[in-house]
Amino acid sequence: MTSHEWIDRRSLALDKAIAQKLQQEPQLLQRAKDTLQRWIHQREPEIPLALQEWQEILDTWLKILELLTSFDEEARRLRQSSPFCGILSEEERLVIFRKFRSQRAMKSKPKPGLKAVAWSPAAENQFLVRFAEMREMVRQISLQLNELELFFRAFDVLESKQRVQH
After folding, report:
1. In a shared domain, residues 22 and 50
2. Domain for residue 114, yes or no?
3. How many domains, the chain?
4. CB 55 within 8 Å of CB 3
5. What pLDDT was estimated at residue 56?
6. Is residue 104 part of a domain?
7. Are 84 and 58 in contact (CB under 8 A)?
8. What whole-number distance in Å separates Cα of residue 6 and Cα of residue 78?
9. How many angstroms separate the first and last alpha carbons of the chain?
10. Which tens digits make up the pLDDT trace of 40-85?
11. Can you spell out the DSSP letters for 81-149?
């Protein structure tokens, strides 16, 4: 299995857990809708096609569940821009990450000359928590970069208006 297939399967497992949680707590769907609207607003006027697709999908309950539990090409493509971040708790996500990490470790063969590293559960948990913190930092930086991009767009518009007036 290639690393892309492995990531796709792990993403599918996360989305299946999200689908199950949404069925138990349907009000969580609003969180995904809010996230999507925020992303669309940040990218206006050039809204990516995937976000437009998600906007249509989030209006149909059956389509949401079908997409979250499917492994077809469309589902894998849309998973890359899924607005369902934040639906699973950090612990729920870590359980899935651990499961896939251990499955991958069992299937992978050690390369000659490399020693396998045995992590204690506490060290593994510490690593995963730190990884989650770093991912959140990257997400925050991405949001700040989007804000800067909007600022520069507004500045360019203002600057061009001033040139026209002079």
Report:
1. yes
2. yes
3. 2
4. no
5. 92
6. no
7. no
8. 16
9. 62
10. 999 988 999 999 999 999 988 888 989 899 988 999 899 888 999 8
11. T-S-TTSS-HHHHHHHHHHHHHHHHHHSPPPTT-PPPPPPHHHHHHHHHHHHHHHHHHHHHHHHHHHHH
The pTM of this model reads 0.59
In a domain, 97, yes or no: no
> 148 vs 23, 42, 126, 142, 157, CA distance in Å?
38, 10, 33, 10, 14
Question: In terms of residue numbers, what domain contains 60?
Answer: 1-89
Residues 132 and 79 in one domain: no
How many CA within 13 A on the CB side of residue 94? 15
Token look-up 């990257």 returns 138
Per-residue confidence (pLDDT) for residue 139, from 0 to 100:
80
| Contact partners, residue 52, CB within 8 Å, separation at least 6 | none
Mean pLDDT of the chain: 83
User: How wide is the angle at C-alpha 53 spanned by C-alphas 10 and 5, nearest 5°?
Assistant: 20
Q: How many CB atoms lie within 10 A of CB 149?
A: 12
Evaluate whether residue 99 is within a structural domain.
no
Rg of the chain (C-alpha set) = 20
Question: Exposed e or buried b for every residue in 105-120, given b needs 16+ CB within 10 A?
Answer: eeeeeeeeeeeeeeee
Q: How confident is the model at residue 9 (pLDDT cuts 50, 70, 90)?
A: confident
